[in-house]
Amino acid sequence: MNWQSPVAETFTIYSLCEYAITLEFNKGITEQTLDDIVAFHTLLNQHPFDGFETAVPAYATLSVFFDPIQVMQSIHLQGTNCFQRVSAYLQTLRQAVISDKVRKDQEPPVVTIPVCYGGEFGPDLEEVAHRSGLSPNEVIQQHSSAMYRVYLIGFTPGFPYLGGLPASLATPRKQTPRASVPRGSIGIAGQQTGIYSQNTPGGWQIIGRTAQSLFDVKNRPPALLKVGDHVIFQPITPDQFNTND
Q: If DSSP codes are grouped into helix, strand and coil, which group holds residue 112?
């Protein structure tokens, strides 16, 4: 069934499938929306409902996955079906999301990523510079001076989509994607920048590379970054890159 439930002015709840629902916080992509999603995501993990399994944040949504059997068997959830039961519970968390205490508790960390720009590490740096009307050094200076936010982890495990790219550096994807992009590559696609977490095909404009691991199954959590984190890029030399590799 196509269930839908408006929740004040905070978010709208949609049925995604029989074991998941999606909260849509805003039609636009803004830092305020991101902060709302991060706050609610954290609060839900701190206060899960019976049957809750995981929640996946994205640009303007939070998808909540659950065990339908546990949801229907719960004596703490009210409603005649999973959508009603889970929706009702999430509405009880709505006011806490916008409280000062939740905001204060969710101060996002700042992660510094060392990057070797240009040359073999950034084969598209010259193209980005040409399209932007800047010198390669100016592109590096602008890219490494910005403060970014992680809006989404996707494409491959640990791959962060970062907002906050200076408008002057916005560059379209390559018309013909590369068959293989080395892991750690820093790319630009439109108005966002990102980091390849694995060796994969890709069409982003590659301007640099980091030796820092973005995803390792042996780590807990396995991904270096999470939605809401701040990211800063720190330029390094090829010798420093090889030392950290």
A: strand
Sheet containing strand 11-17, edge to edge, reads 4-7, 11-17, 20-24, 61-66, 52-57
The span from the CA of 202 to the CA of 209, in Å, is: 14
Interatomic CA distance for residues 242 and 170, integer angstroms: 29
Domains in the chain: ranges and CATH: 4-105 (3.30.1360.40), 110-244 (2.40.100.10)
pTM over 0.85: yes
Regions of the chain where pLDDT drops below 50: 1-2, 6-8, 100
The Cα–Cα gap between 26 and 9 comes to 9
Render pLDDT for 218-227 as a digit per residue (tens, 0 to 9). 998 999 999 9
Tokens standing for residue 1: 């069934």
